[in-house]
Amino acid sequence: MNRTIIRTIIAAMLLIAASAASAQCTMKNTAFKSGESLTYNLYFNWKFVWYKVGTASLSTTERKYQGHEAYRTSLITRSNGRLDKYFIMRDTLLTYISKQLVPLYYRKGAHEGKRYTVDEVWYSYHDNRCKVRMKRLHNDKSITHNEKTSNECIFDMLSLFLRSRSLNPKGWQRGHQIKVEVAGGRDISPGLLTYKGIENIKADDGKKYRCLKLEYAEWNSKKKKYEKLSSFFVTDDLNHIPIRLDFNLRFGSAKAYLTSMKGIRN
Known about the structure:
The chain is mainly β. It is built from 3 helices and 15 strands.
């Protein structure tokens, strides 16, 4: 009985310590809820012409992660036969994030062309610091591991995307920037979110939406500068629904336009 009590006390103390360490990275979720489901059409630019080449879906549900309440969000992209002739794209991104929008786990399986890789990131919090364990399965089946610890909050692409939806843009001027640290399967990269103003965007559901435009850039250590990777347009309301997403890819550029939404929070 005494051993059981001691173990319970130790477990509680560890939980409190972990909660305190991650508290610095918490943020109130104002934008989405469990059950939200968004679908998109994918377009690819080929010789200055845009072709519809597939679909994408973004869904969020409540799940348990290591015994704790969390959100499970997945982003799935699937190219069709038109694009497969030139370049296969089958990406599945998965993230677990706490109810306070603190990253817990990330996985990206990317089948792009003849290349298939899997990135995984595990997060832990201690002494007001964030530690990430990273793993990459390469196309040749080799595996690399890496660990990094930072005094700053660290995110992956999907948890950063979810978190950015709860940002309050009131008072922002065009060019407002937010610096972040983003983990992949191999290392941490400095990232930069930049507010680019308001635009009206027509979605593939036939409606026009007033949107905030945000650009995401990542530091290129070889070129010693930030390079834009994507832009996303989110509704100028509490939901911040992504209406259009633009991607700069290794083999060209792509866009995703919203076709439907359900389970919206606000």
